[in-house]
Amino acid sequence: MSGSWNVQIPLYAGIFLLAVAGNALVILTLVRNQSMRTITNLFLLNLAVSDLLLGVVCMPFTLVGNILRDFVFGDLMCRLIPFLQATSVAVSAWTLVAISVERYYAICHPLRSRRWQTLSHAYRLIAVIWLASFVTMLPISLLSRLIPTNQGLKKCREIWPDADYERGYNLMLDAVLLVLPLFILIVTYSLITITLWRGIRPSNQSGQGELMNNGCSHIEVTRSSSSFKFNSTVGTTSSSSPGGLRRTNTEKALLKKKRVIKMLCAVVLEFFICWTPLYVINTVTLFDKYIVYNALSFQAISFFQLLAYSSSCCNPITYCFMNSSFRKAFLKLFGCLRRGRPKTHF
């Protein structure tokens, strides 16, 4: 075994453990904590499920296959693993888009979005994301095959009837999973940032802040028909409190919204940093594989694959460091688990 694998195996193991434990913790936290059941957090729950799928199903098989240089898991797993990996990436990309669009309407057009921004609508959208991802990635499952190598081993590859079809399909994936989502995310978060940073004017001479009348960024909508509170993740204001206190509460709400948006932007940045290199390598390989093979060793390509998988463990760490609500909920969950341990009597 080369020295490269002496480094990569511990990295794979560490990322795998962080991905499984971290995303399981996020899922448990959001499922058990009713106060955190908001639309944004529901999408983050879906993101955690997708990342957990990537960590559990794809990482161990990929590591073993790369070490042995032989795919030993059979034809069924050859069809299943690449399909689930691609599906997980698609679900993650479009869940991030759904979060950005939901936050854009919640912050910039709260009154316009009241009718459709409900948990039931979010559940339906998540179902559509998964269904569309399955359908889009179905060719990968149908065309993946075990093929023999010169050394008498096996590798798992897609066998297309025509190279142009393969190139066209992969270029479509690049557009659908990287270019288009990145464009939407840049536009929505730019508009959100402009709205939030203009939300409060500097204090005037009397020492009291003045809210900008921009029609958004400080409206709190409560749905009395359900336990869901529209902006419960970003703070509330009290309409019955004195003017100064109301302004202070609104400023705090805006600052909390800014922190949430910073966290979401960090999640987006991590996703694209992790996955873009591997997609670029795969796309270039389709047109001229010798450029890639001459520029990068097998171990280097494996490191880029590892970088892509590391996206599955980044989000829980980001939530913990950048969101106090998640941090408190994590600690509360650990406390509940400790108290909930059954006592044994002998």
UniProtKB/TrEMBL annotation:
Mind telling me which residue stretches traverse the membrane in this protein?
Answer: 12-31, 43-68, 80-101, 122-143, 175-197, 260-281, 301-322
A GO molecular-function descriptor: neuropeptide receptor activity
Q: Where in the cell is it found?
A: Cell membrane
* One GO location term (cellular component): plasma membrane
Membrane-related topology note: Multi-pass membrane protein
A Pfam match: 7tm_1
Look up keyword NAD and say if it applies.
no
UniProt keyword terms in alphabetical order: Cell membrane, Disulfide bond, G-protein coupled receptor, Glycoprotein, Lipoprotein, Membrane, Neuropeptide, Palmitate, Receptor, Transducer, Transmembrane, Transmembrane helix
Gene3D superfamilies named among the record's database cross-references: Rhodopsin 7-helix transmembrane proteins
Its main subcellular localisation, reduced to a broad class, is membrane
Which SUPFAM superfamilies did the record assign?
Family A G protein-coupled receptor-like
The G-protein coupled receptors family 1 profile domain covers 22-319
Functional summary from the UniProt entry:
Receptor for gastrin and cholecystokinin. The CCK-B receptors occur throughout the central nervous system where they modulate anxiety, analgesia, arousal, and neuroleptic activity. This receptor mediates its action by association with G proteins that activate a phosphatidylinositol-calcium second messenger system.
Question: Which family is this protein grouped under?
Answer: Belongs to the G-protein coupled receptor 1 family.
Q: What is this protein called?
A: Gastrin/cholecystokinin type B receptor
The protein's organism comes out as Nilaparvata lugens
